[in-house]
Amino acid sequence: MTSARPSAAAIERLLRPRSVAVVGASPTPGALGASVIANLERSGYSGTLHLVNPKRDQIGGRRCLKSVEDLPLGVDVAVLAIPRAAVLETTRALTARQVGAAIIFSSGFAEGGEAGLAEQREIARLAAESGMVIEGPNCLGLVNYVDGIALTFVETPAVALGDRPGIGIVSQSGALAAVIGVTLMSRELGISYSISTGNEAASGTEDYVAYLLDDARTSVIGLIVEQFREPKRFLELAQRARELRKSIVLLHPGRSVAARQSAATHTGALAGDHAVMRAHVEHQGVIVAETLEEFGDILELTSRCRVSPRRGSVVLTESGAFKALTLDICEQVGLELPPLTDATAPQLRAALPDIVPASNPVDLTAQALVDPDLYRRTLAALLQDERFGTVIFGIIQTDPKTAQLKFPPIIRAITDSSPHKALIFAGLDEGAAVPAEYLRELRSLQVPYFPTPERAYRALARLIASTERHIETSPAALPRSLDLPSHGIVAEYRAKALLTVAGIPVPAGRLVSTLEEAQCAAAALGFPVVLKAQSADLPHKSDAGGVVLGLSDAPSLAQGWERLHVDIARNRPGLVLDGVLIEAMGRRGVELIIGGRHDPEWGPIVLAGFGGVQAEILQDVRLLVPDLPVKAIVDELHGLKSGALLRGFRGSPALDVVAVAEIVRRVGALLRAQPSIQEIDLNPVVVYPVGQGAVALDALMQIDQ
For residues 188, 194, 196 and 201, what is the CA-based torsion angle, rounded to 10 degrees? Predict the structure, then answer.
């Protein structure tokens, strides 16, 4: 994609055109050009429609132009339903006719090899020079449900947005844009615009997000993205969305290596680091869905609920066994269910029959079948309880007769309560024949309906975790004039000197060149000591015998000195050392790993977690943006799989997590202050009991000026 960005006015011409040209118009059912015309007719398009086909005088009673050169000047949008071989020359002709935008369906450009990539770049250049917006190539077009304009070859029902809240869909995948559109419409949710961006030759995801943020009819934005081409701009847009209180929900394929390789061949996207992307976008409030199903579920929650679901959920159900299942799955997905007892919930206790204890989930048993007002009384009590931000009905539906007994009193209870909290309805028995009018009534009351509670729990947990995430930042306060080498690996002793200036604790030590200097240093530091060979060309010292531990006195130090130099000469012949770093041996503690790097797309990112087996096999680490405050970092560290070790496990003392968080914060600040530092690796960082701190025993740093 070129650096020239389409203006909002140019995007407006594309999305809300007053004139459209179909290049490659056809009367043949199923042909791309015929499908576009059929969609426009079905939606009642009232603008000017031009058909271009050199072999036809008319199609469906409309006159056909022989070529693009016959178009009047200034048509808003041209839809190119033509083979790839004709696209480039047609684009040139469109720029000469001052066409505002072009939608290119054809594939085989950047995703098809070098020749296709060259043509795509030329299309982008033409767009940049002329100011014409290009959607695609390799896209399915767009649908404007606000004005009823369908510029796509996918058969599209004429469903107007009306007065419903609008979900704006922007998808690099045309197929998934169509799929999620069907999903949302089946739930009677409103779509404002559905835009398939394809290869994004000259307009991209970020351009359409910027437009939708300013669009009054769009309240939620759903993105299906395989690569952000302007990551830093997207983060700025996500921050603006948060300020405008517009939710952005993201489905981003590419967690696996195979998926990233597939994306490269699918839309011409380059493989990126999914985890780094996710850390950055979630920090700006973007809600990341794991699956297509979850994507639709979260979009429904954000679009339909009367108020945004908040922390603290309570479940109303009718089965003791399902109550236990709910506790299991909510613990698994991280959905908080504050406990209830008769003593702590007097209003609920008063509403329930004597045989039903107050608990969360609340098991109403079958009592509501004989006492339908039980739903109203229970809901009223829970709405008054400030511990709960969301109420979930987990109801057994069975058949139309049972639904007729249960749904009307539940709907009346919701209507009478005028709830100021999010309400969600979930049926336990997926596939039960529930009369459609009940679902419509629930939805008209801004209550989402889910066919299974598990789906509701997962989507709700994801949404609440996002809204509860720490957004605040911690400013860097580090010197910006550190004495950094120009490039390459920085030897440990130099790296630790820089870390010391940055306020990161390291063991006391000295760089020495002779055994005599080592003996003097050891006497000052105090035995036991460790020796480490130092050279920028020796980043992994242990592999070459360049580390000798546990030297407890002068004789053992002399023996260790000799062994180190013999091993280095044998394993790395010809290597010249800067010297040997001698340090006081640290006390035993729990080993962690802290590191950071500059991602070429997203900027600095910090990693923190458990070292050794946990890091390599269990991958018990967190990726963090570099400007989190200490409290937020502490929360993330406690969320590690082995976080119990930090809090004290089986009699061991709680560890100084705050000291670890401070090291993480300072590593992040160092990366932000010094962009030339490409990578920092502190491994291990040993943490001691609360109040005793943490220290980085080893340090690796790489510079690229």
Answer: -160
Tokens for 423, please give them: 């309400």
Confidence bin at 348 (pLDDT 50/70/90): very high
Q: What does the DSSP 8-state code read for residue 112? A: G
Cβ distance 294 to 459 under 8 Å?
yes
Cα distances (Å, whole numbers) of residue 11 to 4, 102, 520: 13, 11, 72
pTM over 0.85: yes
Total residues belonging to the chain = 705
Question: Distance between CA 701 and CA 705 in Å, rounded?
Answer: 13
**Per-residue pLDDT, 475:** 58
Burial of 280 (0-12, 13-18, 19+ CB in 10 A): buried
Q: Could you give the CA distance from residue 307 to residue 296 in angstroms, rounded to a whole number?
A: 18
**590-599 and 603-610 beta bridge pairing:** antiparallel
Which of 606, 692, 697, 702 minimizes the C-alpha distance to 656? 692
Distance of alpha carbon 475 from alpha carbon 669, whole angstroms: 8
- Nearest residue to 428 (alpha-carbon basis) of 304, 312, 318, 297: 318
pLDDT at 486 over 90: no
Give the three-state DSSP class for 519. helix
Residue 480 above 70 pLDDT? no
Name which residue leads in pLDDT, 471 or 703. 703
Domains detected in the chain: 8-303 (3.40.50.261), 306-467 (3.40.50.261), 508-584 (3.30.1490.20), 590-704 (3.30.470.20)
Look at the alpha carbons of 457, 458, 464, 468 in this order and tell me if their dihedral is positive or negative: positive
Measured distance CA(613)–CA(618) in Å, rounded: 7
**Residue 95 burial by CB count (10 A; 0-12/13-18/19+): exposed, middle or buried?**
middle
- Burial (CB count within 10 angstroms: exposed 0-12, middle 13-18, buried 19+), residue 691: exposed
Identify which of 448, 350, 344, 343 has the alpha carbon closest to the alpha carbon of residue 390: 448
